[in-house]
Amino acid sequence: MLSKAKTQEAIRIMGEMFPDAHGELVHRNSFELLIAVILSAQATDVGVNKATPALFAAYPTPEALAQAPLEDVMAKIKTIGLYRNKAKNIKNCAQMLLDDFGGTVPHTREELMRLPGVGRKTANVVLGDAFGVPAIAVDTHVERVSKRLRICKQSASVLEVEETLMKKLPESIWVDAHHRMIFFGRYYCLARAPKCEGCPLLYMCQDGQKRLGIKQAK
Ligand code: SF4
């Protein structure tokens, strides 16, 4: 397993590779970010960004979205996977924002996770990107990169990956680390074809060394 120091070194190197790593869901405020993250489950950020401008232009507030005709919300997001359920969730989410939170997006994980369509990962993205609250959202890229680099156990659940990262990284870099790992996973350590040859982390990556047939010290 990668030590605390090596894990922090890996995140620092990812930062050198992707100094501009950031959340890629286009939004103008915490409400739009919340809705965009709900829509991004099992979908790409690029796909969500294509649909949200029309959605947010028509329904820019929780009030407007809560009152929107379901069919029209579905039509506006129909290019996104699972759009039927997502349309219901974002309408219900907008209604709960009005009913329980005075029309604003709550600032705690517990409250965020009460909203329809919001799980721990979504809540963590909103906490970090909308409010600057330290949190690490574990998506497919963060999980894959953490396991390939042996930051966590191969058998770790998503929650265990998050907990291990929180233990090994200082709180002050959780949000940046999450963005760096996503960029690194999305553009470098790809699921099917990681660019191991030439990877600046190869020297500490057993997975990459194995892929390239490099003999590992016992
Ligand atoms: Fe990913 Fe390969 Fe780099 Fe390891 S060496 S981190 S598997 S790209």
TrEMBL record:
Q: Which GO terms describe its molecular function?
A: 4 iron, 4 sulfur cluster binding; class I DNA-(apurinic or apyrimidinic site) endonuclease activity; DNA binding; DNA N-glycosylase activity; metal ion binding
Xref: PANTHER family: A/G-SPECIFIC ADENINE GLYCOSYLASE/ENDONUCLEASE III (PTHR10359), ENDONUCLEASE III (PTHR10359:SF18)
> Cofactors per UniProt?
[4Fe-4S] cluster
The note on cofactor binding and number reads:
Binds 1 [4Fe-4S] cluster.
Q: Where is the HhH-GPD domain?
A: 39-187
What Gene3D superfamilies would the database entry show?
A: Helix-hairpin-Helix base-excision DNA repair enzymes (C-terminal) (1.10.1670.10), Hypothetical protein, domain 2 (1.10.340.30)
**Biological process per Gene Ontology, one example term:** base-excision repair, AP site formation
Q: Which residues participate in [4Fe-4S] cluster binding? A: 189, 196, 199, 205
Looking up HAMAP family in the UniProt record yields:
Nth (MF_00942)
Biological role stated in the UniProt entry: DNA repair enzyme that has both DNA N-glycosylase activity and AP-lyase activity. The DNA N-glycosylase activity releases various damaged pyrimidines from DNA by cleaving the N-glycosidic bond, leaving an AP (apurinic/apyrimidinic) site. The AP-lyase activity cleaves the phosphodiester bond 3' to the AP site by a beta-elimination, leaving a 3'-terminal unsaturated sugar and a product with a terminal 5'-phosphate.
According to its UniProt record, the EC number is: 4.2.99.18
Kindly give the InterPro entries that the UniProt entry links to this protein.
DNA_glycosylase, Endonuclease-III-like_CS2, HhH-GPD_domain, HhH_base_excis_C, HhH_motif, Nth
Tell me the superkingdom of the source.
Bacteria
Which terms are listed as keywords in the entry?
A: 4Fe-4S, DNA damage, DNA repair, DNA-binding, Endonuclease, Glycosidase, Hydrolase, Iron, Iron-sulfur, Lyase, Metal-binding, Nuclease
The gene designation is: nth
Q: Which reaction does it catalyse?
A: 2'-deoxyribonucleotide-(2'-deoxyribose 5'-phosphate)-2'-deoxyribonucleotide-DNA = a 3'-end 2'-deoxyribonucleotide-(2,3-dehydro-2,3-deoxyribose 5'-phosphate)-DNA + a 5'-end 5'-phospho-2'-deoxyribonucleoside-DNA + H(+)
Name of the protein in question: Endonuclease III
What family does this chain come from, according to its entry?
Belongs to the Nth/MutY family.
Q: Name one Pfam family in it.
A: HhH-GPD
